[in-house]
Amino acid sequence: MPLAAPPNNAEIYTGDTLPEALSDPLRSYLTNFTVTLNTFACGRDFYSPLVSCLDCQVEYRKWLCAVSLPRCSEPSPANPSGVTAVPAAPTVTGLSATKNEQQGVLSALLPYQTSTPPRNSFLPQFGSPYQMLLPCIESCTAMDRACPAFLGIKCPTAQFNGAASYGIGYIDGKDGDEKEGLTGMAQDRYGNVWCQLG
User: How far is residue 167 from each of residues 74, 93, 99, 162, 198, measured CA to CA in Å?
Assistant: First the structure.
């Protein structure tokens, strides 16, 4: 994440070391979402024979972390200029829809300068430029599939500028066809990461 090193020489941030300015809003969002979800009779009635309110909470938490806690990354050494255009055109379908000349898939990276406001307004301004790995659109669509319709969850689409804020077409196809993306996954076994799944 675009944060200073964790306190007390810790190697990674945890729930205990994440700055309160970041963790408090996330806890508040999770609490409010759970209260709203529990207005539905989760223990007695079922909105789906396949998923439950617990599944919905899990997918919401993954999505919330993916969009609120940006992951820094870097372009592939083989194609250092392979980053997402800023701003994305309304018709763009993400870097996943195109391949470079060597048929290598490009990661969904968005360059951030020190003057650019952070994606999450609770993140402190970072002192140097960085590349942010966009969340996979599947983190949103998985939440949409797992949650009851009354919550009104709507995910952006490739046709309406979804690639400006999500990596589209990596796991599912650019039109949402399951398992029809270019790579079929968020990360391969060699450590190449195409988008952040959460």
Answer: 15, 9, 14, 8, 12
CB 109 within 8 A of CB 70: no
Question: 130-133 and 71-73 as β-strands: parallel, antiparallel, unpaired?
Answer: antiparallel
53-68 and 137-146 are packed helices; what angle lies between their axes, rounded to 10 degrees? 160
Per-residue pLDDT, 82? 53
- Look at residue 131 and give its three-state secondary structure: strand
Strand (E) or helix (H) holding 60: helix 53-68
**182, 96 Cβ separation under 8 angstroms:** yes
Average pLDDT in the 138-144 region?
92
Q: Domain spans of the chain? A: 11-164
